[in-house]
């Protein structure tokens, strides 16, 4: 029933967010920032940045940035191929359970791929990927693409992400699929090669 209410915009989530923000674990400042994001989203703005939100509030950029990371990391919002999805917020406001998603530890994945601990600057670059709207799985896929191409640097990964955002996700180096014996005829399977 609630999905129908959400799909047809039957609920004023702006008012509900102000009334229930504290109950769902948001500070007043975070509720206000999230309300601005919700309003911009409803106006058709697909890429929300801290600079854009700073135009409408007095919070400093660092506070806005931290709030936006919290919204994604604590599943107030979801990201799908760089686009924010507000349905987890709607479900929280309607007291529905938000399904848990296996969180990917990006730092560990990058350290495994690079074979060394990451510097603070590199960790900040990963956070900037998340702020730019890329979800964890897309970042991991870009890292795997860079590993397969044997180009392990953050600029290359950033270019992969921006190209996927612009042109759609197309992995150049797809994993090789295992061929099974079912693809071969019985004649080939039963061939006694030592007699040929």
UniProtKB/TrEMBL annotation:
Q: Which organism is it from?
A: Sharpea azabuensis
Q: Name one Pfam family in it.
A: DnaB_2
Q: Which SUPFAM superfamilies match?
A: DnaD domain-like
Give all residue intervals belonging to the DnaB/C C-terminal domain. 108-168
Q: Could you tell me which InterPro entries the record lists for this protein?
A: DnaB/C_C, DnaD, DnaD-like_sf, WH-like_DNA-bd_sf
The record's annotation in PANTHER family points to:
DNA REPLICATION PROTEIN DNAD, PHAGE REPLICATION PROTEIN-RELATED
Name the NCBIfam families for this protein.
Answer: DnaD_dom
Protein name (record):
DNA replication protein
What lineage does UniProt assign to this protein's organism?
Bacteria, Bacillati, Bacillota, Erysipelotrichia, Erysipelotrichales
Family to which the UniProt record says this protein belongs: Belongs to the DnaB/DnaD family.
């Amino acid at each position: 029933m609630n999905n129908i209410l959400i799909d047809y915009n039957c609920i004023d989530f702006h008012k509900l967010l102000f009334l229930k923000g504290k109950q769902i674990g948001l500070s007043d400042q975070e509720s206000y920032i999230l309300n601005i994001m919700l309003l911009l989203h409803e106006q058709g703005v697909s890429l929300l940045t801290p600079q854009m939100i700073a135009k409408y509030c007095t919070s400093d950029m660092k506070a806005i940035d931290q709030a936006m990371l919290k919204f994604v990391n604590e599943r107030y919002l979801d990201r799908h191929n760089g686009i924010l999805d507000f349905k987890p917020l709607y479900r929280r406001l309607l007291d529905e359970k938000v399904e848990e998603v296996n969180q990917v530890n990006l730092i560990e994945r990058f350290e495994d791929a690079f074979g060394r601990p990451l510097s603070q600057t590199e960790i900040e670059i990963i956070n900037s990927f998340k702020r730019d709207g890329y979800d964890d799985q897309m970042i991991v896929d870009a890292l795997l693409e860079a590993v397969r191409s044997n180009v392990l640097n953050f600029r290359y990964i950033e270019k992969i992400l921006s190209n996927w955002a612009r042109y759609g996700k197309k992995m150049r180096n797809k994993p090789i699929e295992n061929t099974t014996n079912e693809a071969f005829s019985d004649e080939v399977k039963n061939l006694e090669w030592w007699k040929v």
